[in-house]
Design a protein that fits this description.
Helix content: over 70%
Strand content: under 5%
Distance between the termini: 49 Å
Shape: flat
Order of helices and strands: HHHH
Number of strands: 0
Number of helices: 4
Largest sheet: none
C-alpha cells in the first residue's frame, strides 16, 4: 500500500466525518431558527428525491415515461402512502403494484 493511497484514505475520512460532525458542533445547544432551520429540515427530503427520482424516470439509462412500471409504481405508491400512513401496507401495495404493472406494461 502506497503512502499516497493512505494519505487519500485519511483525507477522505476527515472530509466525510468532518462534514457530518461539523453541524452538530456548530449548532450544539443553540435554538436554530429561520432559514437555517428550514434548510436543515429540507436536506433529507432533497437527498431522498435526488436518489429516487433518477431511478424512477430512467430505469434503463434513458428517459421512459409511458411504459415504465418503476415510475408508475412510485407515483401510485406515493399517493397510497399519502392516504394510508402504514409503512407495511405501503410496501405491500408498492410490490403488488409493481408486479402487476410490470406484467401489464411489458
Amino acid at each position: 500500500m502506497s503512502l499516497q493511497f493512505l494519505e487519500t484514505v485519511l483525507l477522505m475520512t476527515l472530509v466525510t466525518y468532518g462534514s457530518r460532525v461539523l453541524p452538530f458542533l456548530l449548532f450544539k445547544g443553540k435554538d436554530v431558527q429561520g432559514f437555517a432551520r428550514d434548510f436543515i429540515e429540507l436536506v433529507p427530503i432533497a437527498l431522498l428525491a435526488a436518489l429516487v427520482v433518477p431511478e424512477l424516470v430512467t430505469p434503463g439509462g434513458t428517459i421512459a415515461l409511458t411504459h415504465n412500471p418503476f415510475l408508475w409504481t412510485g407515483v401510485l405508491t406515493f399517493l397510497f402512502a399519502r392516504f394510508v400512513p402504514n409503512l407495511f401496507l405501503g410496501i405491500i401495495f408498492g410490490m403488488t403494484t409493481f408486479w402487476g404493472l410490470d406484467k401489464l406494461l411489458q
